[in-house]
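Hi everyone,

Forwarding the result from last night's run.
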Amino acid sequence: MDAEQILEPRSYQINARDQVIYNIETEKKTAFLILLPTGMGKTLIASLIVEMLMERGLVASEEKILFLVQDRKLKHQLHSMMMQYGLAKHGHLYLLDDQKGIPPQMTRNHAALSKFIFATPILLMNAVVGKNPRIDRETLEKVGVVIIDEIFDVFAQSYGTKRPREETIRYIERRFGGGREFKDIVKSLKEELEKRPEAEGREFHEGSIADQLIREFESKNYRLNKKFEPILTLLDILSAESQKIVIGLTASISQETKIDLLKTTLGEKRVAEIHPAGDDFEFHRPAYELKQIRVFDDWIADIDSIIGKVRHASFSQLSEVYKILTGKKQIPNDRILLFVSDILGKKSLQKTLLEKLGNNEERLHSYLSHASAYLLMTVARQRLLESTLKSFSRFIENIENKILVTNNDFISLRDKVRNKMTESLAVEGYLSEKEKRLLFWLDMMDKEDKKSLVMCRFVEVTKHLTALAETKGISATFVHGGMDGATQYNQIKTFKEGKKKVLFASERLIEKGTDLPEADVGFYYGTTASLERYEQSLGRIRSNVSNVKTLYTIAYNQTVENEKSLKRDTMFLELLGKQLGTVAEIKIE
Protein backbone atom coordinates (compact mmCIF):
# COMPACT_ATOMS: atom_id res chain seq x y z
CA MET A 1 0.00 0.00 0.00
CA ASP A 2 1.48 3.32 -0.98
CA ALA A 3 1.48 6.55 0.96
CA GLU A 4 -1.37 8.12 -1.00
CA GLN A 5 -3.65 5.18 -0.19
CA ILE A 6 -2.70 5.38 3.47
CA LEU A 7 -3.39 9.10 3.69
CA GLU A 8 -6.72 8.81 1.91
CA PRO A 9 -8.70 5.85 3.24
CA ARG A 10 -11.71 4.85 1.21
CA SER A 11 -15.26 5.38 2.39
CA TYR A 12 -15.95 1.67 2.96
CA GLN A 13 -12.78 1.41 5.05
CA ILE A 14 -13.87 4.36 7.19
CA ASN A 15 -17.31 2.74 7.41
CA ALA A 16 -15.75 -0.45 8.79
CA ARG A 17 -13.83 1.55 11.38
CA ASP A 18 -16.95 3.45 12.43
CA GLN A 19 -18.96 0.22 12.75
CA VAL A 20 -16.34 -1.20 15.11
CA ILE A 21 -16.14 1.96 17.26
CA TYR A 22 -19.94 2.19 17.44
CA ASN A 23 -20.22 -1.42 18.55
CA ILE A 24 -17.60 -0.89 21.25
CA GLU A 25 -19.04 2.32 22.61
CA THR A 26 -22.77 1.69 22.20
CA GLU A 27 -23.32 -2.07 21.92
CA LYS A 28 -20.49 -2.98 24.31
CA LYS A 29 -19.03 -5.53 21.86
CA THR A 30 -15.36 -6.50 22.24
CA ALA A 31 -14.71 -8.97 19.41
CA PHE A 32 -15.05 -8.16 15.71
CA LEU A 33 -14.81 -10.08 12.48
CA ILE A 34 -14.13 -7.86 9.47
CA LEU A 35 -15.07 -9.67 6.26
CA LEU A 36 -13.70 -8.14 3.08
CA PRO A 37 -12.53 -9.64 -0.24
CA THR A 38 -8.80 -10.04 -0.79
CA GLY A 39 -7.04 -6.85 -1.83
CA MET A 40 -9.49 -4.31 -0.40
CA GLY A 41 -7.32 -3.07 2.45
CA LYS A 42 -8.19 -4.95 5.65
CA THR A 43 -4.89 -3.99 7.30
CA LEU A 44 -5.55 -0.32 6.62
CA ILE A 45 -8.92 -0.74 8.32
CA ALA A 46 -7.08 -2.21 11.32
CA SER A 47 -4.84 0.88 11.35
CA LEU A 48 -7.83 3.21 11.27
CA ILE A 49 -9.47 1.31 14.11
CA VAL A 50 -6.33 1.34 16.27
CA GLU A 51 -5.86 5.06 15.80
CA MET A 52 -9.43 5.88 16.74
CA LEU A 53 -9.32 3.53 19.73
CA MET A 54 -6.44 5.61 21.07
CA GLU A 55 -8.03 8.95 20.15
CA ARG A 56 -11.25 8.01 21.96
CA GLY A 57 -9.38 6.74 25.01
CA LEU A 58 -10.68 3.20 24.47
CA VAL A 59 -7.12 1.92 24.95
CA ALA A 60 -5.50 2.85 28.23
CA SER A 61 -2.10 4.56 28.14
CA GLU A 62 -0.39 1.53 29.68
CA GLU A 63 -2.09 -0.98 27.38
CA LYS A 64 -0.33 -2.50 24.37
CA ILE A 65 -1.60 -3.42 20.93
CA LEU A 66 -0.58 -6.76 19.41
CA PHE A 67 -0.64 -7.56 15.69
CA LEU A 68 -0.64 -11.32 15.01
CA VAL A 69 0.00 -12.68 11.51
CA GLN A 70 0.71 -16.31 10.75
CA ASP A 71 3.00 -15.48 7.84
CA ARG A 72 6.58 -14.41 8.65
CA LYS A 73 7.10 -12.13 5.67
CA LEU A 74 3.74 -10.43 6.24
CA LYS A 75 4.84 -9.56 9.76
CA HIS A 76 7.65 -7.44 8.29
CA GLN A 77 5.34 -6.00 5.63
CA LEU A 78 2.71 -5.08 8.22
CA HIS A 79 5.31 -3.51 10.52
CA SER A 80 6.60 -1.33 7.66
CA MET A 81 3.09 -0.32 6.66
CA MET A 82 2.20 0.75 10.21
CA MET A 83 5.42 2.76 10.42
CA GLN A 84 4.50 4.43 7.15
CA TYR A 85 0.96 5.05 8.36
CA GLY A 86 2.33 6.94 11.35
CA LEU A 87 1.45 4.79 14.36
CA ALA A 88 4.93 5.50 15.75
CA LYS A 89 3.64 8.86 17.01
CA HIS A 90 1.64 6.87 19.58
CA GLY A 91 4.54 4.73 20.77
CA HIS A 92 7.30 2.38 19.68
CA LEU A 93 6.60 -0.44 17.20
CA TYR A 94 8.41 -3.65 18.19
CA LEU A 95 8.96 -6.33 15.56
CA LEU A 96 9.43 -9.71 17.25
CA ASP A 97 11.82 -11.70 15.09
CA ASP A 98 14.17 -14.65 15.57
CA GLN A 99 16.55 -12.22 17.30
CA LYS A 100 19.55 -14.52 16.95
CA GLY A 101 22.51 -13.25 18.94
CA ILE A 102 20.50 -10.63 20.81
CA PRO A 103 20.40 -11.18 24.61
CA PRO A 104 16.91 -12.18 25.84
CA GLN A 105 17.02 -9.44 28.48
CA MET A 106 17.37 -6.82 25.74
CA THR A 107 14.37 -8.15 23.81
CA ARG A 108 12.30 -8.34 27.01
CA ASN A 109 13.08 -4.71 27.75
CA HIS A 110 12.36 -3.71 24.16
CA ALA A 111 8.93 -5.41 24.20
CA ALA A 112 8.12 -3.99 27.64
CA LEU A 113 8.78 -0.42 26.45
CA SER A 114 6.86 -0.76 23.16
CA LYS A 115 3.28 0.28 22.50
CA PHE A 116 2.87 -2.05 19.50
CA ILE A 117 4.12 -5.61 19.05
CA PHE A 118 4.19 -7.49 15.73
CA ALA A 119 4.59 -11.27 15.80
CA THR A 120 3.53 -14.65 14.47
CA PRO A 121 1.61 -16.86 16.94
CA ILE A 122 4.35 -19.51 17.08
CA LEU A 123 7.15 -17.00 17.53
CA LEU A 124 5.20 -15.22 20.26
CA MET A 125 4.53 -18.48 22.08
CA ASN A 126 8.20 -19.45 21.94
CA ALA A 127 9.20 -15.99 23.12
CA VAL A 128 6.97 -16.24 26.20
CA VAL A 129 7.32 -19.87 27.31
CA GLY A 130 10.84 -20.67 26.07
CA LYS A 131 13.75 -21.57 28.32
CA ASN A 132 15.05 -18.01 28.08
CA PRO A 133 11.86 -15.98 27.49
CA ARG A 134 12.21 -12.97 25.22
CA ILE A 135 8.89 -11.44 26.31
CA ASP A 136 7.76 -11.34 29.93
CA ARG A 137 4.27 -12.59 30.75
CA GLU A 138 3.69 -9.30 32.51
CA THR A 139 4.22 -7.58 29.14
CA LEU A 140 1.71 -9.91 27.51
CA GLU A 141 -0.82 -9.20 30.24
CA LYS A 142 -0.73 -5.50 29.26
CA VAL A 143 -2.01 -6.26 25.75
CA GLY A 144 -5.46 -4.67 25.49
CA VAL A 145 -6.08 -5.01 21.75
CA VAL A 146 -5.25 -8.00 19.54
CA ILE A 147 -5.47 -7.71 15.74
CA ILE A 148 -5.35 -11.13 14.04
CA ASP A 149 -4.85 -11.19 10.28
CA GLU A 150 -6.64 -14.07 8.51
CA ILE A 151 -8.04 -15.01 11.88
CA PHE A 152 -9.41 -18.36 10.80
CA ASP A 153 -5.92 -19.59 9.87
CA VAL A 154 -5.02 -19.09 13.53
CA PHE A 155 -8.34 -19.83 15.16
CA ALA A 156 -9.96 -22.79 13.40
CA GLN A 157 -8.69 -26.32 12.91
CA SER A 158 -10.57 -28.73 10.66
CA TYR A 159 -11.35 -32.27 11.72
CA GLY A 160 -13.28 -35.25 10.49
CA THR A 161 -16.87 -34.98 9.46
CA LYS A 162 -17.99 -32.76 6.61
CA ARG A 163 -21.36 -31.30 5.71
CA PRO A 164 -23.85 -33.95 4.56
CA ARG A 165 -24.46 -33.89 0.81
CA GLU A 166 -27.96 -32.40 1.06
CA GLU A 167 -26.79 -29.66 3.42
CA THR A 168 -23.94 -28.82 1.03
CA ILE A 169 -26.40 -28.61 -1.87
CA ARG A 170 -28.59 -26.19 0.08
CA TYR A 171 -25.51 -24.10 0.88
CA ILE A 172 -24.51 -23.90 -2.82
CA GLU A 173 -28.08 -22.97 -3.81
CA ARG A 174 -28.22 -20.26 -1.15
CA ARG A 175 -24.84 -18.79 -1.94
CA PHE A 176 -24.61 -19.10 -5.72
CA GLY A 177 -28.04 -20.06 -6.98
CA GLY A 178 -29.67 -16.66 -7.36
CA GLY A 179 -32.97 -18.51 -7.13
CA ARG A 180 -31.72 -21.54 -9.08
CA GLU A 181 -31.85 -25.10 -7.80
CA PHE A 182 -28.68 -27.18 -7.58
CA LYS A 183 -29.51 -29.18 -10.71
CA ASP A 184 -29.83 -25.92 -12.67
CA ILE A 185 -26.46 -24.67 -11.36
CA VAL A 186 -24.86 -27.94 -12.47
CA LYS A 187 -26.57 -27.77 -15.85
CA SER A 188 -25.33 -24.20 -16.30
CA LEU A 189 -21.78 -25.23 -15.47
CA LYS A 190 -21.96 -28.10 -17.97
CA GLU A 191 -23.14 -25.70 -20.67
CA GLU A 192 -20.34 -23.26 -19.81
CA LEU A 193 -17.74 -26.02 -20.13
CA GLU A 194 -19.11 -27.31 -23.41
CA LYS A 195 -19.10 -23.80 -24.93
CA ARG A 196 -15.37 -23.36 -24.44
CA PRO A 197 -13.38 -23.81 -27.67
CA GLU A 198 -10.77 -25.83 -25.81
CA ALA A 199 -13.47 -28.30 -24.68
CA GLU A 200 -14.26 -29.42 -28.22
CA GLY A 201 -14.62 -33.19 -28.41
CA ARG A 202 -14.76 -33.68 -24.65
CA GLU A 203 -17.69 -35.11 -22.74
CA PHE A 204 -18.83 -33.49 -19.51
CA HIS A 205 -21.21 -35.35 -17.23
CA GLU A 206 -23.52 -33.57 -14.84
CA GLY A 207 -22.86 -36.22 -12.20
CA SER A 208 -19.12 -35.59 -12.11
CA ILE A 209 -19.63 -31.80 -12.11
CA ALA A 210 -22.07 -32.12 -9.21
CA ASP A 211 -19.59 -34.28 -7.29
CA GLN A 212 -16.83 -31.72 -7.85
CA LEU A 213 -19.04 -28.92 -6.55
CA ILE A 214 -19.92 -30.98 -3.48
CA ARG A 215 -16.23 -31.67 -2.78
CA GLU A 216 -15.39 -28.00 -3.13
CA PHE A 217 -17.99 -26.75 -0.67
CA GLU A 218 -18.65 -29.54 1.85
CA SER A 219 -16.49 -27.70 4.38
CA LYS A 220 -15.28 -29.73 7.33
CA ASN A 221 -16.25 -29.28 10.93
CA TYR A 222 -13.94 -27.01 12.88
CA ARG A 223 -12.67 -26.75 16.43
CA LEU A 224 -10.36 -24.31 18.15
CA ASN A 225 -6.87 -24.74 16.71
CA LYS A 226 -4.93 -26.81 19.23
CA LYS A 227 -1.67 -25.46 17.87
CA PHE A 228 -2.50 -21.87 18.74
CA GLU A 229 -4.90 -22.33 21.65
CA PRO A 230 -2.15 -21.86 24.29
CA ILE A 231 -1.15 -18.40 23.04
CA LEU A 232 -4.80 -17.34 22.64
CA THR A 233 -5.36 -18.48 26.23
CA LEU A 234 -2.29 -16.58 27.46
CA LEU A 235 -3.65 -13.46 25.78
CA ASP A 236 -6.94 -13.98 27.66
CA ILE A 237 -9.13 -13.46 24.61
CA LEU A 238 -11.10 -16.73 24.59
CA SER A 239 -13.40 -16.15 27.54
CA ALA A 240 -16.87 -14.71 26.91
CA GLU A 241 -16.16 -12.37 29.85
CA SER A 242 -12.87 -11.10 28.43
CA GLN A 243 -12.62 -7.33 28.02
CA LYS A 244 -9.74 -7.57 25.54
CA ILE A 245 -10.61 -6.08 22.17
CA VAL A 246 -10.13 -8.58 19.33
CA ILE A 247 -10.10 -7.47 15.68
CA GLY A 248 -10.20 -10.46 13.34
CA LEU A 249 -9.59 -9.95 9.62
CA THR A 250 -10.51 -12.43 6.91
CA ALA A 251 -10.77 -12.40 3.13
CA SER A 252 -12.41 -15.80 2.80
CA ILE A 253 -15.89 -15.71 1.35
CA SER A 254 -17.33 -19.05 2.51
CA GLN A 255 -16.63 -19.33 6.22
CA GLU A 256 -20.01 -19.75 7.89
CA THR A 257 -18.92 -22.78 9.91
CA LYS A 258 -15.80 -20.99 11.15
CA ILE A 259 -17.81 -17.87 11.99
CA ASP A 260 -20.14 -20.00 14.10
CA LEU A 261 -17.12 -21.47 15.90
CA LEU A 262 -15.76 -17.98 16.60
CA LYS A 263 -19.07 -16.82 18.04
CA THR A 264 -19.53 -19.94 20.12
CA THR A 265 -16.02 -19.72 21.57
CA LEU A 266 -15.91 -15.99 22.27
CA GLY A 267 -19.58 -15.64 23.11
CA GLU A 268 -22.45 -14.60 20.82
CA LYS A 269 -23.04 -11.35 22.72
CA ARG A 270 -19.40 -10.36 22.41
CA VAL A 271 -18.91 -10.79 18.65
CA ALA A 272 -19.99 -8.49 15.82
CA GLU A 273 -19.60 -9.20 12.11
CA ILE A 274 -18.42 -6.16 10.15
CA HIS A 275 -19.34 -5.97 6.47
CA PRO A 276 -17.83 -2.72 5.15
CA ALA A 277 -20.07 -0.56 2.96
CA GLY A 278 -19.50 2.66 1.09
CA ASP A 279 -20.02 4.54 -2.16
CA ASP A 280 -16.64 3.37 -3.45
CA PHE A 281 -17.01 -0.30 -2.48
CA GLU A 282 -18.17 -1.40 -5.94
CA PHE A 283 -15.40 0.60 -7.59
CA HIS A 284 -12.65 -1.18 -5.63
CA ARG A 285 -14.07 -4.70 -5.42
CA PRO A 286 -12.10 -7.52 -7.09
CA ALA A 287 -12.34 -8.09 -10.84
CA TYR A 288 -10.34 -10.51 -12.92
CA GLU A 289 -9.45 -11.35 -16.49
CA LEU A 290 -8.53 -15.01 -16.64
CA LYS A 291 -6.67 -16.53 -19.58
CA GLN A 292 -5.16 -19.91 -20.26
CA ILE A 293 -1.95 -20.55 -22.17
CA ARG A 294 -1.98 -24.09 -23.50
CA VAL A 295 1.39 -25.71 -24.05
CA PHE A 296 1.56 -28.43 -26.70
CA ASP A 297 3.98 -31.28 -26.01
CA ASP A 298 3.12 -34.80 -27.20
CA TRP A 299 5.80 -36.35 -24.99
CA ILE A 300 4.36 -34.78 -21.82
CA ALA A 301 0.82 -35.82 -22.81
CA ASP A 302 2.03 -39.39 -23.39
CA ILE A 303 3.83 -39.60 -20.04
CA ASP A 304 0.83 -38.09 -18.23
CA SER A 305 -1.39 -40.74 -19.80
CA ILE A 306 0.95 -43.56 -18.70
CA ILE A 307 1.06 -42.21 -15.15
CA GLY A 308 -2.74 -42.26 -15.19
CA LYS A 309 -2.76 -45.94 -16.17
CA VAL A 310 -0.27 -46.89 -13.47
CA ARG A 311 -2.18 -44.95 -10.81
CA HIS A 312 -5.45 -46.56 -11.85
CA ALA A 313 -3.97 -50.06 -11.45
CA SER A 314 -2.99 -49.29 -7.85
CA PHE A 315 -6.24 -47.46 -7.18
CA SER A 316 -8.23 -50.62 -7.92
CA GLN A 317 -6.25 -52.34 -5.16
CA LEU A 318 -6.86 -49.41 -2.81
CA SER A 319 -10.58 -49.73 -3.48
CA GLU A 320 -10.40 -53.35 -2.35
CA VAL A 321 -8.70 -52.30 0.88
CA TYR A 322 -11.30 -49.59 1.46
CA LYS A 323 -14.12 -52.08 1.03
CA ILE A 324 -12.46 -54.56 3.39
CA LEU A 325 -12.05 -51.91 6.08
CA THR A 326 -15.29 -49.95 5.71
CA GLY A 327 -17.68 -52.14 3.74
CA LYS A 328 -18.10 -49.31 1.22
CA LYS A 329 -17.33 -49.76 -2.45
CA GLN A 330 -16.02 -46.33 -3.41
CA ILE A 331 -13.42 -44.06 -1.79
CA PRO A 332 -14.59 -40.42 -1.94
CA ASN A 333 -12.32 -38.62 -4.41
CA ASP A 334 -11.24 -36.01 -1.91
CA ARG A 335 -10.34 -38.69 0.66
CA ILE A 336 -8.08 -40.89 -1.48
CA LEU A 337 -4.75 -39.35 -0.47
CA LEU A 338 -5.83 -39.14 3.18
CA PHE A 339 -6.78 -42.84 3.05
CA VAL A 340 -3.40 -43.66 1.49
CA SER A 341 -1.64 -41.70 4.21
CA ASP A 342 -3.58 -43.53 6.93
CA ILE A 343 -2.85 -46.94 5.42
CA LEU A 344 0.86 -46.24 5.16
CA GLY A 345 1.28 -44.36 8.44
CA LYS A 346 -1.07 -45.84 11.02
CA LYS A 347 0.08 -49.11 12.56
CA SER A 348 -3.32 -49.61 14.20
CA LEU A 349 -5.04 -49.50 10.79
CA GLN A 350 -2.51 -51.92 9.34
CA LYS A 351 -3.16 -54.26 12.28
CA THR A 352 -6.91 -54.11 11.67
CA LEU A 353 -6.41 -54.81 7.96
CA LEU A 354 -4.12 -57.74 8.72
CA GLU A 355 -6.76 -59.27 10.98
CA LYS A 356 -9.44 -58.86 8.29
CA LEU A 357 -7.06 -60.55 5.83
CA GLY A 358 -6.79 -63.58 8.09
CA ASN A 359 -3.22 -62.62 9.09
CA ASN A 360 -2.10 -62.98 5.48
CA GLU A 361 1.01 -60.77 5.66
CA GLU A 362 1.83 -61.25 1.97
CA ARG A 363 -1.49 -59.66 0.96
CA LEU A 364 -1.00 -56.89 3.50
CA HIS A 365 2.42 -55.99 2.09
CA SER A 366 1.01 -56.10 -1.45
CA TYR A 367 -1.74 -53.63 -0.52
CA LEU A 368 0.77 -51.38 1.22
CA SER A 369 2.97 -51.43 -1.88
CA HIS A 370 0.01 -50.42 -4.02
CA ALA A 371 -0.77 -47.56 -1.63
CA SER A 372 2.83 -46.40 -1.86
CA ALA A 373 2.76 -46.77 -5.67
CA TYR A 374 -0.36 -44.61 -5.91
CA LEU A 375 1.25 -41.90 -3.80
CA LEU A 376 4.50 -42.03 -5.79
CA MET A 377 2.64 -41.65 -9.08
CA THR A 378 0.66 -38.72 -7.69
CA VAL A 379 3.88 -36.91 -6.83
CA ALA A 380 5.40 -37.96 -10.17
CA ARG A 381 2.56 -36.29 -12.04
CA GLN A 382 3.04 -33.08 -10.06
CA ARG A 383 6.74 -33.08 -10.91
CA LEU A 384 6.10 -33.87 -14.57
CA LEU A 385 3.70 -30.97 -15.01
CA GLU A 386 4.98 -28.34 -12.59
CA SER A 387 8.68 -28.99 -11.99
CA THR A 388 11.73 -29.52 -14.20
CA LEU A 389 12.60 -32.46 -16.43
CA LYS A 390 15.70 -33.06 -14.32
CA SER A 391 13.68 -33.17 -11.11
CA PHE A 392 11.07 -35.47 -12.64
CA SER A 393 13.75 -37.78 -14.05
CA ARG A 394 15.58 -37.96 -10.72
CA PHE A 395 12.33 -38.78 -8.94
CA ILE A 396 11.47 -41.59 -11.38
CA GLU A 397 14.99 -43.07 -11.20
CA ASN A 398 14.87 -43.22 -7.41
CA ILE A 399 11.62 -45.23 -7.28
CA GLU A 400 12.17 -48.74 -5.89
CA ASN A 401 8.56 -49.71 -5.18
CA LYS A 402 8.15 -53.41 -6.02
CA ILE A 403 4.74 -52.94 -7.60
CA LEU A 404 6.01 -50.21 -9.91
CA VAL A 405 9.35 -51.70 -10.98
CA THR A 406 7.52 -54.82 -12.22
CA ASN A 407 4.70 -52.90 -13.93
CA ASN A 408 5.14 -52.89 -17.72
CA ASP A 409 3.64 -49.40 -18.08
CA PHE A 410 6.00 -48.00 -15.47
CA ILE A 411 8.98 -49.74 -17.10
CA SER A 412 7.98 -48.12 -20.40
CA LEU A 413 7.62 -44.77 -18.65
CA ARG A 414 11.09 -45.02 -17.09
CA ASP A 415 12.65 -45.89 -20.46
CA LYS A 416 10.96 -42.92 -22.12
CA VAL A 417 12.20 -40.59 -19.37
CA ARG A 418 15.77 -41.89 -19.70
CA ASN A 419 15.69 -41.34 -23.45
CA LYS A 420 14.31 -37.84 -22.98
CA MET A 421 17.04 -36.99 -20.48
CA THR A 422 19.68 -38.21 -22.93
CA GLU A 423 18.18 -36.01 -25.64
CA SER A 424 18.03 -32.96 -23.36
CA LEU A 425 21.64 -33.34 -22.24
CA ALA A 426 22.72 -33.27 -25.87
CA VAL A 427 21.05 -29.87 -26.34
CA GLU A 428 22.89 -26.89 -24.89
CA GLY A 429 20.55 -24.72 -22.80
CA TYR A 430 17.66 -27.20 -23.08
CA LEU A 431 14.26 -25.75 -22.24
CA SER A 432 10.96 -27.54 -21.79
CA GLU A 433 8.00 -26.36 -23.87
CA LYS A 434 6.39 -24.82 -20.79
CA GLU A 435 9.58 -22.97 -19.90
CA LYS A 436 9.77 -21.62 -23.46
CA ARG A 437 6.21 -20.37 -23.36
CA LEU A 438 6.64 -18.72 -19.97
CA LEU A 439 9.88 -16.99 -21.00
CA PHE A 440 8.23 -15.79 -24.22
CA TRP A 441 5.41 -14.15 -22.26
CA LEU A 442 7.69 -12.72 -19.58
CA ASP A 443 9.90 -11.21 -22.24
CA MET A 444 6.86 -9.69 -23.93
CA MET A 445 5.65 -8.23 -20.60
CA ASP A 446 9.14 -6.91 -19.89
CA LYS A 447 9.23 -5.12 -23.25
CA GLU A 448 5.87 -3.57 -22.41
CA ASP A 449 7.40 -2.44 -19.10
CA LYS A 450 5.02 -4.62 -17.10
CA LYS A 451 5.91 -6.40 -13.87
CA SER A 452 4.96 -10.07 -13.55
CA LEU A 453 4.20 -12.35 -10.59
CA VAL A 454 4.71 -16.06 -11.32
CA MET A 455 3.27 -18.59 -8.85
CA CYS A 456 4.83 -22.06 -8.73
CA ARG A 457 4.16 -25.23 -6.76
CA PHE A 458 7.77 -26.18 -5.97
CA VAL A 459 10.48 -24.19 -4.21
CA GLU A 460 13.16 -25.48 -6.57
CA VAL A 461 11.16 -24.22 -9.55
CA THR A 462 11.15 -20.66 -8.24
CA LYS A 463 14.96 -20.76 -8.20
CA HIS A 464 15.24 -22.55 -11.56
CA LEU A 465 12.91 -20.18 -13.40
CA THR A 466 14.60 -17.13 -11.88
CA ALA A 467 17.94 -18.32 -13.23
CA LEU A 468 16.40 -18.92 -16.69
CA ALA A 469 14.82 -15.46 -16.74
CA GLU A 470 18.11 -13.82 -15.77
CA THR A 471 19.92 -15.63 -18.63
CA LYS A 472 17.35 -14.12 -21.01
CA GLY A 473 18.05 -10.64 -19.68
CA ILE A 474 14.86 -10.42 -17.62
CA SER A 475 15.47 -8.96 -14.16
CA ALA A 476 13.96 -11.46 -11.69
CA THR A 477 14.00 -12.66 -8.10
CA PHE A 478 12.28 -15.41 -6.11
CA VAL A 479 10.68 -16.07 -2.73
CA HIS A 480 9.59 -19.28 -1.00
CA GLY A 481 8.59 -20.69 2.37
CA GLY A 482 12.05 -22.01 3.19
CA MET A 483 13.39 -18.48 3.64
CA ASP A 484 13.34 -16.65 6.95
CA GLY A 485 10.87 -13.78 7.26
CA ALA A 486 13.43 -11.01 6.77
CA THR A 487 14.77 -12.59 3.56
CA GLN A 488 11.26 -13.12 2.22
CA TYR A 489 10.39 -9.52 2.94
CA ASN A 490 13.57 -8.17 1.31
CA GLN A 491 13.14 -10.31 -1.81
CA ILE A 492 9.57 -9.11 -2.24
CA LYS A 493 10.64 -5.54 -1.55
CA THR A 494 13.04 -5.56 -4.54
CA PHE A 495 10.06 -6.46 -6.72
CA LYS A 496 7.71 -3.93 -5.16
CA GLU A 497 10.28 -1.15 -5.56
CA GLY A 498 10.83 -2.00 -9.23
CA LYS A 499 14.41 -3.25 -8.87
CA LYS A 500 13.22 -6.59 -10.27
CA LYS A 501 10.63 -7.00 -13.02
CA VAL A 502 9.56 -10.59 -12.23
CA LEU A 503 8.87 -12.29 -8.90
CA PHE A 504 8.76 -16.11 -8.85
CA ALA A 505 6.96 -17.30 -5.72
CA SER A 506 5.82 -20.57 -4.23
CA GLU A 507 2.04 -20.29 -4.52
CA ARG A 508 1.15 -21.29 -0.94
CA LEU A 509 3.50 -18.63 0.37
CA ILE A 510 2.02 -15.89 -1.77
CA GLU A 511 -1.69 -16.70 -1.72
CA LYS A 512 -2.39 -15.25 1.72
CA GLY A 513 -1.25 -12.01 3.17
CA THR A 514 1.17 -10.69 0.55
CA ASP A 515 -0.31 -7.73 -1.28
CA LEU A 516 1.41 -7.08 -4.60
CA PRO A 517 -0.49 -4.27 -6.33
CA GLU A 518 2.80 -3.48 -8.10
CA ALA A 519 2.32 -6.60 -10.26
CA ASP A 520 0.71 -5.77 -13.60
CA VAL A 521 0.07 -9.39 -14.56
CA GLY A 522 0.06 -12.79 -12.88
CA PHE A 523 1.02 -16.27 -14.09
CA TYR A 524 0.18 -19.67 -12.61
CA TYR A 525 2.86 -22.17 -13.57
CA GLY A 526 0.34 -24.98 -13.25
CA THR A 527 -2.97 -25.24 -11.43
CA THR A 528 -4.46 -24.41 -8.05
CA ALA A 529 -7.28 -26.83 -7.21
CA SER A 530 -9.21 -25.11 -4.42
CA LEU A 531 -11.51 -22.22 -5.31
CA GLU A 532 -10.86 -20.62 -1.93
CA ARG A 533 -7.07 -20.74 -2.48
CA TYR A 534 -7.56 -19.51 -6.03
CA GLU A 535 -9.58 -16.54 -4.84
CA GLN A 536 -6.94 -15.74 -2.22
CA SER A 537 -4.05 -15.81 -4.67
CA LEU A 538 -5.97 -13.89 -7.35
CA GLY A 539 -6.43 -11.07 -4.87
CA ARG A 540 -2.72 -10.66 -4.30
CA ILE A 541 -2.20 -8.40 -7.32
CA ARG A 542 -5.12 -6.15 -6.38
CA SER A 543 -7.08 -6.46 -9.61
CA ASN A 544 -10.35 -4.53 -9.37
CA VAL A 545 -13.01 -2.92 -11.53
CA SER A 546 -10.96 0.27 -11.77
CA ASN A 547 -7.79 -1.58 -12.77
CA VAL A 548 -8.50 -5.02 -14.22
CA LYS A 549 -5.39 -7.19 -14.48
CA THR A 550 -4.83 -10.40 -16.42
CA LEU A 551 -3.97 -13.71 -14.78
CA TYR A 552 -2.71 -16.50 -16.99
CA THR A 553 -2.59 -20.22 -16.28
CA ILE A 554 0.12 -22.06 -18.22
CA ALA A 555 -0.92 -25.70 -18.59
CA TYR A 556 0.07 -28.64 -20.78
CA ASN A 557 -2.52 -29.56 -23.39
CA GLN A 558 -4.25 -32.98 -23.19
CA THR A 559 -3.18 -33.55 -19.58
CA VAL A 560 -4.94 -33.66 -16.23
CA GLU A 561 -3.45 -30.21 -15.58
CA ASN A 562 -5.29 -28.63 -18.50
CA GLU A 563 -8.54 -30.32 -17.58
CA LYS A 564 -8.31 -29.13 -13.96
CA SER A 565 -7.51 -25.55 -14.91
CA LEU A 566 -10.44 -25.46 -17.34
CA LYS A 567 -12.89 -26.73 -14.73
CA ARG A 568 -11.47 -24.47 -12.03
CA ASP A 569 -11.75 -21.30 -14.12
CA THR A 570 -15.21 -22.23 -15.37
CA MET A 571 -16.44 -22.85 -11.82
CA PHE A 572 -14.89 -19.56 -10.74
CA LEU A 573 -16.62 -17.72 -13.58
CA GLU A 574 -19.98 -19.34 -12.97
CA LEU A 575 -19.98 -19.18 -9.17
CA LEU A 576 -17.69 -16.53 -7.73
CA GLY A 577 -17.76 -14.54 -10.95
CA LYS A 578 -21.49 -14.04 -10.71
CA GLN A 579 -21.02 -12.57 -7.25
CA LEU A 580 -18.12 -10.32 -8.19
CA GLY A 581 -19.68 -9.61 -11.55
CA THR A 582 -16.61 -8.60 -13.53
CA VAL A 583 -14.70 -11.76 -14.36
CA ALA A 584 -13.64 -11.74 -17.99
CA GLU A 585 -14.11 -14.63 -20.37
CA ILE A 586 -11.42 -17.31 -20.46
CA LYS A 587 -9.25 -17.15 -23.55
CA ILE A 588 -6.70 -19.55 -24.98
CA GLU A 589 -3.35 -18.18 -26.04
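The chain has four domains: 3-157+226-281, 162-214, 288-295+432-588, 300-425.

Cheers,
N.
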